[in-house]
């Protein structure tokens, strides 16, 4: 009798701990992803870089089926992205009677499967947690906003925005400024909360999820590299081109002006140089000789470098020039210009 009672107590205890263990495992080890009936979902599975060359697959515990990476079927695709150290699986046209259940991502290491991510998929007419769009994008240095919805039974549960890769999570009202980008979450208390990420960096690209309690929904964030200011670059290019062009035009204008000035100056010199004046002195034979010093310099003359000089030629008896009546030619003075 005593033995029977002890055995009864033992089995009851074992049953209790098994039930407790299952409950703990169910709530603690599995994430619950909720998706709308007839909809689709993409789930990321991150793995260590050293497993890049290993075989990877998506396994359903409902029918124990396995789908290896780089497989595409009508309602299921499993694609490996070794450059990002993750593979994604996309399930389409979901139905609760067919797709509800537990799944996991696994990597084969030395022939043995290693589970890297577990999830419980639940298809609902009104998902416990959902998002407007499962893919968002923003520019480097810019902002993005994600609106996450939850059913009212999760009103008092913790709302989070988490990153799959490093399991970093942000809660309502918290702002993280330890990095260049910051995250702020605000809950309206009426069935939605908003995630605002500011100062985006390229390294912020990746997979995140909205969660309320244990229910979640994934979101892919893509940060686009900032493009240079085209208008500013255009102005700089114009400035780079027009500055030297303007300088050349100005120099050319100066050269043309100098050339015109010099040309005009030379023309004046040629006109002066080509002139010759002749002064004839008439005198009678009986008149005494006349001596004179001729100074042709003009103090107001701008052409100081031009020398004027005169010569006297004696032309007694010359027939080229006839003197007036009663006079005789004694000499002729020629004035010429030497412009050096």
Descriptive terms for the model:
21 strands, ten-stranded mixed sheet, about 350 residues, alpha+beta, four-stranded antiparallel sheet, disordered C terminus, disordered N terminus
Describe this protein's structure:
With 340 residues, the protein is of the alpha+beta class. Helix content is 22%, strand content 39%. The protein contains three helices and 21 strands. The chain has helices at residues 2-28, 96-99, 230-273, and strands at 31-36, 41-46, 56-60, 66-68, 71-72, 76-81, 86-91, 101-109, 112-124, 129-131, 135-139, 144-150, 159-163, 169-171, 182-187, 192-198, 206-212, 215-224, 277-283, 307-313, 328-338. Strands 1, 3, 4, 8, 9, 11, 13, 14, 17 and 18 form a ten-stranded mixed beta sheet that branches. A four-stranded antiparallel beta sheet has the order 2-7-6-5, with no helix packed on it. The longest helix has 44 residues, at 230-273. It starts with a helix and ends with a strand.
Map the helices and strands:
Elements: H1 2-28, E1 31-36, E2 41-46, E3 56-60, E4 66-68, E5 71-72, E6 76-81, E7 86-91, H2 96-99, E8 101-109, E9 112-124, E10 129-131, E11 135-139, E12 144-150, E13 159-163, E14 169-171, E15 182-187, E16 192-198, E17 206-212, E18 215-224, H3 230-273, E19 277-283, E20 307-313, E21 328-338
Parallel strand pairs: 1-9, 1-18, 11-18
Antiparallel strand pairs: 2-7, 3-4, 3-8, 5-6, 6-7, 8-9, 10-12, 12-16, 13-14, 13-17, 15-16, 17-18, 19-21, 20-21
